[in-house]
Amino acid sequence: MDKGIEALIADMKAAAEKATPGRIGDRIDGSGSIKYECLGLDKTLVLRTDHKNMEYGFIGDNGDADEVFFRLSSPENVLALIAALEQAQQESKEQSARIEELESQRKLAFMACNRWRDKCVDAEKRIAELEKWQQCEHSKKRNAVIDGLAQCGEAAWEIEEYMQQWDKEHPLELAAYKAELDSAPNGMMQLSNELAEMKRKCAEVPDEFARIGESLRTQSNRTTGHPVFVVFDKQEIVGSEEHDCDRIAWVFECHEVDECKAGRLEALYQGGRDTRGYDRYAMKSIDQFVTACFTEDGCKDYLQQNGHNLNKPFIYVHSAYRNDEWQVIRNWLMTVGGIAEGGE
After folding, report:
1. Which of 11, 169, 229, 252 has the most CB within a 10 Å radius?
2. Pairwise CA distance, residues 256 & 57, whole Å
3. SS3 165
4. What is the pLDDT of residues 44-62, one digit of tens each?
5. Nearest residue to 336 (alpha-carbon basis) of 156, 205, 226, 227
6. Which residues in 63-92 are b (16+ Cβ under 10 Å) and which e?
7. CB 153, CB 210: distance < 8 Å
8. Residues 261-274: b if buried by 16+ CB within 10 A, e if exposed
9. Nearest to 27 by CA among 17, 37, 18
10. 180 with 142: CB under 8 angstroms?
């Protein structure tokens, strides 16, 4: 508010407080002159004017104070006060609107704060879940190392010795493992150790598996993927001389004659001579499957034990391409003391 208006308000307030309360006036007209009297609320005479007799002025003990108030109550001052009042009322309306706007913003901010609070609570829960998951993953990683050692046939004391060094190099996994043990029921540690020992025993494999695995990793596969070493022998069947045969055999009473006699009989047959009592057969030699091994050494061992029962045996390499069962077993054998070969 303007300082001049503030001073005017202060002056008029002070004058009004000192002036005689009330302004009851009436115009007296009857003697050819204008007379005017103004009384206070207590009927005391405040102001008298007599135009004819030139009588005027504020009457009474409080006349000076009433005159001051009268002089201050000019139209200009009254209009200025009214303008200030209207401006104050307008500002009051604007402030009320601003207060409503701020209140609306406060409510929106409060709602936003609640939403962010809920998000913070959810975020804290999510962080706790992630920390728990991370702790679980660290613990799983440590358990996976123990399982791997057990599957390789390591003894319990060897696993314990290895894990002591491993724990020093992986503090996060060790902390997660201890936290899991602390939260586990009583006796869980003992059960965990017993389970690890059972896994180790189940994973124990004969030394022969290690020998096979070493052969798989070091042998020549003869440029064959997923090789299968097969033992074949030669078997003769009766064929057709006109189509395909390897030799002619002469038989007398279910027994094949020797090579010399067979030659004479063949000469007689070709010359159109009589060969009654002898049967002539066109023989075809085919490859007969005998057995299959993972390694060439396995085939050689088989021939050493059973080769005397075979006819011209030999070793041939086939492929286990798309034979998932064979590949799985072969790859597992290669892990015994080594790294598995990637399957196709």
Report:
1. 229
2. 175
3. helix
4. 766 766 555 555 566 667 7
5. 205
6. eebbbbbbebeeeebeebeeebeeeeeeee
7. no
8. ebeebeeeeeeeee
9. 37
10. no
Dihedral sign computed on CA atoms, order 31, 32, 33, 34: positive
Residue 301 per-residue DSSP state = H
Write out the H or E segment, with its range, that includes residue 232. Answer: strand 227-238
Lowest mean pLDDT among 9-13, 69-73, 324-328: 69-73
What is the C-alpha separation between 47 and 36, in angstroms, rounded?
8
Q: One-letter amino acid identity for 113?
A: C
Q: Which residue, chain included where needed, has tokens 């070793």?
A: 315
The confidence score (pLDDT) of residue 31 equals 54
Q: For helices 75-151 and 156-169, give the axis angle rounded to 10 degrees.
A: 150
Q: Where are the beta strands (DSSP E) in 239-311?
A: 247-252, 255-256, 279-293
> Cβ neighbours of residue 221 under 8 Å, at least 6 residues apart?
227, 317
In terms of C-beta density within 10 A (0-12 exposed, 13-18 middle, 19 or more buried), how is residue 294 classed?
buried
Amino acid at 177: Y
Cβ atoms of 286 and 233 closer than 8 Å:
no
